């Protein structure tokens, strides 16, 4: 039987809150910096637009702005600890799109252009949705403590659905960028031009 005078449950709660703060403190600024770089990096929005055009995201100018804004908003939401699981869902959605477009067909390792990075970020976002933002957050200050498996499922599901919808509506890779495996599976007929 647990000792009612034990501080273990309180210590466990502080540990969870500290873990959530640490994860938010790494994931949030990183997402914000990626969004900021799309706007103010060496190529600015024009360079990001050209990159998105080459990936097959149409219209590229709109997607450059949406991606930058979503990354900055999700990053800020995580840093502040506001509205769990929505910032995590945004991170999942961003990473699914990145894995499907920029990292597609390049294997696992990020140093070869693979999806390793996007998988880790999406997994960390879902883990954070499970932990909740903790007491050291705006959600905590507002008395809004949403955490647990339901929040993880919500973050993953919302992110994946948003990404799938966006890709279905706006992802138009050039024929040269289509994977041979897509033709072999019958998804794309040989000689078909994807616009």
Low-confidence stretches: 182-195
Total count of helical runs of at least 4 residues: 8
How many β strands by DSSP?
0
Coarse structural class: mainly alpha
Radius of gyration: 19 Å
Q: Quick one: overall form? A: elongated
Write structural notes for this entry.
This protein is an all-alpha fold. Helices cover 66% and strands 0% of the residues. The chain is built from eight helices and no strands. Mean pLDDT is 88; it is low at 182-195.
Structural key phrases:
0% strand; mainly alpha; 8 helices; disordered C terminus; 195 residues; 66% helix
List the helices and strands and how they pair.
Elements: H1 8-40, H2 44-55, H3 60-80, H4 86-101, H5 116-131, H6 138-141, H7 149-170, H8 180-184
Helix pairs in contact: 1-2, 1-3, 1-5, 2-3, 3-4, 4-5, 4-7, 5-7
Short description:
The protein is mainly alpha-helical and 195 residues long.
């Amino acid at each position: 039987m647990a000792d009612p005078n034990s501080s273990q449950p309180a210590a466990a709660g502080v540990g969870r809150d500290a873990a959530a703060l640490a994860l938010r403190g790494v994931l949030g600024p990183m997402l914000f910096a990626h969004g900021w770089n799309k706007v103010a990096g060496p190529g600015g929005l024009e360079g990001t637009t050209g990159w998105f055009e080459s990936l097959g995201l149409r219209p590229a100018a709109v997607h450059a702005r949406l991606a930058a804004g979503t990354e900055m908003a999700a990053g800020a939401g995580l840093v502040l600890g506001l509205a769990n699981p929505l910032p995590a869902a945004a991170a999942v959605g961003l990473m699914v799109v990145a894995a499907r477009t920029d990292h597609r067909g390049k294997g696992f390792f990020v140093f070869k252009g693979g999806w390793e990075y996007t998988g880790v970020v999406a997994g960390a976002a879902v883990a954070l949705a499970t932990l909740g933002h903790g007491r050291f957050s705006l959600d905590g200050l507002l008395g809004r403590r949403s955490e647990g498996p339901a929040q993880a499922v919500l973050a993953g599901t919302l992110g994946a659905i948003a990404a799938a919808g966006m890709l279905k509506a706006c992802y138009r890779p050039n024929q040269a960028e289509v994977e041979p495996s897509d033709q072999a599976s019958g998804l794309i007929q040989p000689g078909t031009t994807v616009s």
